[in-house]
Amino acid sequence: MSTSKIIIDQALKVYFGIVVYFFLMKFVGLENFTELRALNFIFVIWGVNAAIKKNILVNSDTMYLSNLSIGFSTAFFAVLGIAMSLIFYITFINYDLIHVMENSSVWGNNLSLGMVVFAILIEGMASSVICSFLVMQYWKKHKIQQIA
User: What DSSP string describes 6-50?
Assistant: First the structure.
């Protein structure tokens, strides 16, 4: 299986996991708790781990840098999808989300859509790097015969 297919498959799983989580928060009435949005980190770790594990098992690739780049790419594309979805959501569905973010202790005041998307992308890239390195600390010790 090609690495690009692994990356896209797992990035879509992370993306849909985060989207479902956010809509579930809205449905339950927890969308005002900005701090709960930090739990999307769990979805990123899950997707990065699944991508690296699949590359090791399917492609028999135990090279540290190639698996690290697969993990980072998986998280990067998921974050990119989330940022585009956030633009769509705020523009066409619920602009008040900007005001919810302004009233939280995390974001600050006088936010624009561009500032929010930029911050999400920067935070997402940082979490992508962190998650990839964290997951690789586990997988660097495992060889193919130990996993199967």
Answer: HHHHHHHHHHHHHHHHHHHHHHHT-TT-GGGGGGHHHHHHHHHHH
How many C-beta neighbours within 10 Å does residue 48 have?
32
> What mean pLDDT comes out for the span 1-9?
93
* Residue carrying structure tokens 């992308």: 121
Q: What is the pLDDT of residue 25?
A: 87
**Number of separate domains in the chain:** 1
pTM of the predicted model, to two decimals?
Answer: 0.84
Question: Could you tell me the residue range of the domain that residue 70 belongs to?
Answer: 3-147
Residue 63 is classified by DSSP as -
Q: Are 113 and 87 in contact (CB under 8 A)?
A: yes
CA–CA separation, 102 and 111 (whole Å): 7
Distances (CA, A) of 9 to 12, 31, 77, 106, 126: 5, 28, 10, 32, 21
